[in-house]
Predict the structure.
Amino acid sequence: MEREDFDFLAARCEGPVLSPGEEGDDEERTGCNLAVRHRPEVIVSAARAEDVAAAVTFAAARGPPVAVRNTRHGFSVPAEGGLLVTTRRMSRVRVDPHRRSAYVAAGVRFEQLIPEAARHGLAPLSGSAPHVGVVSCTLGGGLPLLARSHGWAADRVLAMDVVTADGEQRHVSPQTEPDLYGALLGGRDNFGIVTGMEFGLVPVVRLYGGGLFYDAEQAPGLLEAYAGWTTTVPDEMNSSVALIPFPDDPQVPEPMRGRRVWHVRIAFTGSAEDGTRLVEPLRRFGPRLRPGP
Ligand SMILES: Cc1cc2nc3c(=O)[nH]c(=O)nc-3n(C[C@H](O)[C@H](O)[C@H](O)COP(=O)(O)OP(=O)(O)OC[C@H]3O[C@@H](n4cnc5c(N)ncnc54)[C@H](O)[C@@H]3O)c2cc1C
């Protein structure tokens, strides 16, 4: 890409526009995922929706393919060339306690939204990792910790601001653009770059939760036992299970290091007393691994 193209783009963006090797380029390219090396020709670290529109308009006119990333917690293949839009600078959060809703810009992570909502006794339908992006997680359906009692996060989306492939900024809701609204929820960046999203929050004033870990080799019947247990507990007892292959790395707590581990996650909105009683059968299923003191 010619220097004049960078200058053209930089003049239209508030956030930095970076060429390969420029200071800050490494952090924008990689994010938290060091396993995948993207090598875009240019990075637009968008600070506002207008930067995203300028980047997409530029790409539509001059040809480079466009990708968008926030935290890099999603799986991806290494990109060679093209224009990468990063959104981490777009960090606006607004909670409306009367409507029980929130508006977040594209770069917001759940850990930024949860404390703002909690001030009002509300919570977003967040997944198991607070450091993933709210917008991307929700565009992918958003299977939350509170799924059993509250359903999918995507079902609470009220409206989205999106830049489509023609560079237009559109306000998309079930009333204004029902097809695009439906396509974005599940289609993610196949239909545009979402610059902001408004969605409903749920009332949560207490939570009894955490995780139970089991060595997969030592607990062969865990999955069946867990599935049976879920049929015995009320809908307020939200849970999920994941099989995690932990690397043999000193950063991983010793009991999990190099092991395949069942992780049972609990999020119960009833009392701690009831939560303790309901979880007891899982505690008895063993042997369990204890990552901390
Ligand atoms: C430890 C861990 C736990 C998880 N737990 C859950 C869970 O409980 N429930 C659940 O539902 N998911 C869960 N996920 C999956 C996670 O929600 C997705 O990987 C999500 O896409 C991550 O979004 P990101 O913005 O953080 O990551 P990124 O890698 O930056 O983005 C992922 C993809 O989303 C798209 N995208 C990003 N920003 C935009 C945008 N503004 N507009 C349009 N498309 C965009 C792009 O295709 C991008 O490649 C988990 C992931 C991890 C790593």
Notes: Residues 68-74, 76, 87, 106, 127-129, 132-133, 135-137, 139-140, 142-143, 188-189, 193-194 surround flavin-adenine dinucleotide (CB under 6 Å). The mean pLDDT is 93.
